[in-house]
Amino acid sequence: MRIAILTSSRADYGIYLPLLKKLKKEPFFNLSLIVFGTHLSVSHGNTFKEIEKDGFEIEFKLNTVPEFDSPGAISDAIGETIKLFSKFWMQQKDEFDLVFCLGDRYEMFAAVVAGIPLQIAFAHIHGGETTLGAIDNVFRHSITLASKFHFAATAMSAARVKELISTNENVYNVGSLSLDNLKKLNLLTIDEFKVKWGIDLSKSTILTTFHPETVAMNKNELFTGELIIALKSLTGYQVLITMPNADTLGSSVRRKLIEEFQYSEHVFLIENLGSQSYFTAMKFCSYMLGNTSSGIIEASSFGKYVINIGDRQKGRESGPNVIHTPIDAHAILQTVKDIETFPNLRSVNIYYNGGAADKVIEVLHSTYIN
Q1: What's the CA dihedral at 226, 230, 231, 235 to 10 degrees?
Q2: Alpha helix (H) residue ranges in 185-299
Q3: 132 φ, ψ to 5°?
Q4: How far apart are CA 298 and CA 288, in angstroms?
Q5: Over the stretch 120-139, which tens digit does the pLDDT of each residue have?
Q6: Residue 309, CA distances (Å) to 84, 212, 260, 328 in order
Q7: Which residue from 83, 82, 148 is spatially nearest to 109, judged by alpha carbons?
Q8: Residue 183: predicted pLDDT
Q9: Of 24, 168, 9, 167, whose CA–CA distance to 101 is shortest?
Q10: Label partner for 366 (CA 20 to 30 A): which of 41, 145, 224, 329?
Q11: How far apart are alpha carbons 266 and 235 in whole angstroms?
């Protein structure tokens, strides 16, 4: 079975990884990787090299990174990405039985939209979710409507997919692929992490990622300022910040964080930790703070509380470990005080359903045979 994987960022690649390993291992599958987006961006770490380091051959590379990240530049990038993939799909349309796409980013949307007239068969991962604070919500649901197969992460998401496509056919609740990583990934020790990054996770640590809110774009400068005020006040902790995605106006958030913290003694800025180091930091941190989906999906597997700030993840299902908080310095600091009095958490995760990669593989086998 000829399977292609669309991957545009470090985030989706990390989620795909358990599935990629299984697809590569089985002779039944012929695997092709289509790499684009920030994977090919120097400023975002040229993360395509991580893919190659993991032993995967990259068959196709499409350069779709916009030069700027203003709303107009993102709109232009969507158009240019559609053009690039239009040519690509016309050349490759008969080469794949199924093409996997994941999530909700604008470049993933553009790649899929270009394939609709050519009837490319897409399989969508993480459809049916809701994030009201990001324009990604529109992209996600559009990708769902363009796809033939749907691998949702929760029963509620699967039900929403069925509503969107008006059928129950080819919709599967498999859980989150990223949680398969946690069982297979050999995490670093505290000492190994310190050698690699110069950061001692034996100290009380806050793991932070803050992405711009792409709906309330005019408030991102204010929001970033409130977060910075809070982080400066949290001198009893060291703060490990992973940098934001290439979203609309994401560079302004990135620039402000660098301006404020590049010489800080208690705040560390890392562009990209990679899956092993990121989950190591999650394991040993005191708690998480920010608005990244990993706080919603993976953190509870480590028994970690998460201060989820703002509306970027609003509408997405979350467990009792997630405390939703306004992007306000006073509110953030008060939530920190509250968490310090909370009991330890049990690691129960609503996104786990017994091994997502195996469930996806089982569907692919039965589909191809039928």
Answers
A1: 160
A2: 190-197, 220-233, 250-261, 274-284, 293-297
A3: -75, -20
A4: 11
A5: 999 999 999 988 777 778 99
A6: 36, 11, 20, 8
A7: 82
A8: 78
A9: 9
A10: 145
A11: 7
In three-state secondary structure terms, 244 is coil
Kindly tell me the sign of the dihedral angle through the C-alpha atoms of 180, 184, 190, 192. Answer: negative
Reported as a single tens digit per residue, the pLDDT across 262-313 is 889 899 999 889 888 999 999 999 999 999 999 999 999 999 999 999 988 8
For 104, the token pair is: 């909700």
> Which token pair is 220?
């991102």
Residue 191 Cα distances to 185, 196, 197, 293, 308, angstroms: 17, 9, 10, 27, 29
**355, amino acid identity:** G
Structure tokens at 313: 């993840």
Distance CA 316, CA 178 (A): 16
- Token readout for 32 is 């092709």
Which two tokens mark 184?
A: 């297979």
Is residue 334 pLDDT above 90, yes or no?
yes
Q: Which helix (H) or strand (E) holds 152?
A: strand 149-152
**Residue 273's closest CA among 7, 4, 34, 10?**
10
Q: Which tokens sit at 159?
A: 């039900």
Residue 330's identity, in one-letter code, is H
Residue 174's nearest CA partner among 158, 153, 155, 149 is: 153
Q: Answer for the pair 78, 111: CB distance below 8 angstroms, yes or no.
A: no
| Mean pLDDT score of the chain | 91
- pTM recorded for the entire structure: 0.84
Q: Nearest 5 degrees, angle CA 142-CA 274-CA 356? A: 50
Q: How many helices (H) and strands (E) does the chain have?
A: 14, 13
368: pLDDT confidence band, cut at 50, 70 and 90?
Answer: confident
* Nearest CA among 327, 350, 253, 337 for reference residue 287: 337
Q: Give every CB contact of residue 189 below 8 A, 6+ residues apart in sequence.
A: none
